[in-house]
Specification:
CATH topology: Amino acid/polyamine transporter I
Strand content: under 5%
Largest sheet: none
Structural class: mainly alpha
Number of strands: 0
CATH superfamily: Amino acid/polyamine transporter I
CATH architecture: Up-down Bundle
């Protein structure tokens, strides 16, 4: 029976495959990832090998998706990572994973709000309107909350339009480079040669590359609202990973062709901001550069809207589990959205942004850089837990699935993600541009958050055994 709005359940069959893909790709913020994240990967990493590094990351997340999507048909509701970890490893690990996921999503929201404010502030200043960055951050938050309380399909349409605009302008640049015949070296397979991909600096490159995938795992959180979720969620996950990987790899390969494999690293190091805008100016004209700057803002806004909707559903799921107040499970009578959860998490975001503003933190050098590093570290930690949970879940009952799906792929994904966690950890100073003890403590913070969740679960088991017995099964 379909869930009806107003019954404290999200509306079933509200969104289809395309909507979910829009949410996931928008969370990856293609324009921001390509123009903002890949130049430092070129400059400080393995140079021309960046396109191949995206292929490696894509393979890693496809391996992760094999077990993740196989488990999807056994998980219902909007619990996402929390439900997966709980079913595989038990409630202590599940609650620990849930808190770590919340840390990741809050951190990425805070970081993107700061970056959004930086770009909007710069654009507004060019028009003669000079206001503090936090004014634009709060304005963006208000618009995101207003849209987040609407029917989920409304956000899906907005995200789809933003995503298409981002992809189109970057693809136009890529095709213009190819039509131009590349740089002095011409068109070649540079960027994918093994000697380039596995050259010195691959570890640093992977730190920036992995951050470009944050949010792809959010497919599962829309399971309660998806039409035919057993098929839609796995398809959306695979398509999203393949689309993100192909787009990033193609765009970075094209820029290597423009500068040439021997000059790409030096060009990025000389001007991180102009690495993409310079060829855009030369091949397409100044008006395209202005349009791209506007699309950077819409890209960041789409990312914020996507993560806002994701986090709303996390709060909603934890409310149904009895881990948060039941008020966050309330669904809007007209729009079928978890609007109370949206207000609660928006209040938390506003509080954190307000604290950063009060202490005078630099929106880019501190708020964006630090919070994005914390987000990547946290989400990779949760993904490791999910991969281990998949292995444990199918060890009890394979449900007739091949060991390649239930064991081999999840084990490879776990090893790859553990390596990724180590790479991010060892390169925190470069990722944040800071040697602060707070930054160096991020791995400890992530572990402590996960441990606190486990301790909370054990306390619930002792004082509320009935609630503990229901954990992970609120949507069954």
């Amino acid at each position: 029976m379909e869930n009806q709005p107003g019954a404290n359940r999200l509306q079933a069959n509200s969104i289809g495959l395309a909507h979910i893909i829009f949410f996931v790709v928008a969370a990856a913020a293609p324009m921001t990832a390509v123009v903002g994240a890949t130049p430092p990967a070129f400059a400080f990493g393995n140079g021309a090998g960046v396109p191949g590094a995206f292929i490696l990351a894509g393979i890693l997340y496809l391996l992760f998706s094999v077990g993740f999507t196989a488990m999807t048909r056994h998980i219902s509701g909007a619990g996402a990572f929390y439900a997966y970890i709980t079913r595989g490893l038990g409630s202590p690990a599940g609650i620990g994973g849930a808190l770590t996921a919340l840390l990741a999503y809050f951190a990425i929201q805070i970081s993107v709000f700061a970056l959004f404010a930086v770009f909007v502030s710069g654009f507004a200043a060019s028009l003669g309107l000079d206001l503090p960055w936090w004014v634009w951050a709060f304005a963006g938050l208000a618009i995101v909350v207003a849209l987040g309380r609407r029917h989920i399909a409304v956000s899906g349409v907005i995200l789809g339009l933003c995503m298409i605009a981002e992809l189109v302008i970057l693809l136009v640049l890529d095709l213009a480079i190819l039509a131009h015949g590349g740089g002095e070296a011409g068109i070649s397979v540079s960027g994918f040669r093994l000697s380039e991909v596995f050259g010195p600096g691959l570890g640093v490159t992977m730190v920036f590359v992995l951050g470009s995938y944050v949010g792809f795992e959010a497919t599962a959180i829309f399971g309660e609202e998806a039409s035919n979720p057993d098929r839609t969620i796995p398809r959306a996950t695979y398509i999203a990973v393949i689309l993100i990987t192909a787009f990033y790899a193609f765009s970075t390969w094209a820029i290597v062709q423009y500068y040439g494999p021997d000059k790409a690293q030096a060009a990025a190091a000389a001007s991180l901001e102009g690495f993409y805008f310079a060829p855009m100016q030369a091949l397409l004209g100044g008006w395209v550069v202005k349009l791209a700057n506007i699309l950077l803002i819409t890209s960041l806004f789409a990312c914020l809207l996507s993560f806002h909707n994701t986090l709303n559903r996390y709060f909603y799921a934890l409310g149904h589990e009895g881990l948060l107040s039941s008020h966050v499970t309330k669904v809007h009578d007209d729009h079928g959205s978890p609007h109370v959860a949206g207000l609660v998490q928006a209040a938390l975001v506003a509080t954190i942004l307000g604290l950063f503003a009060l202490i005078g933190a630099d929106p880019y050098g501190v708020v964006f850089s630090w919070m994005s590093a914390l987000a990547v570290l946290s989400i990779v930690a949760v993904q490791i837990m999910v991969s281990v949970a998949v292995i444990a879940f199918f060890r009890r009952d394979s449900f007739g699935r091949s060991p390649l799906v239930t064991l081999v792929a999840p084990v490879l994904a776990t090893l790859g993600l553990m390596t990724a966690f180590g790479l991010v950890w060892s390169n925190l100073s470069m990722l944040t541009g800071s040697e602060s003890p707070i930054v160096q403590a991020f791995p400890v913070i992530v572990v402590c958050v996960a441990a606190s969740g486990s301790l909370l679960a054990l306390r619930i088991k002792r004082v509320q055994p009935e609630l503990y017995a229901r954990l992970g099964r609120a949507f069954d």
